[in-house]
Amino acid sequence: MRAGEEEVFTVDFVNLLAAGETIVSAVWTSTAVGGGDPNPNATIQGAASISGSKVSTFISNGIPGVRYAPICTAQTSEGKTLVLPEYGMGQLEVTL
Question: Can the peptide bond before residue 38 be classed as cis, meaning omega within 30 degrees of 0?
Answer without folding.
Answer: no
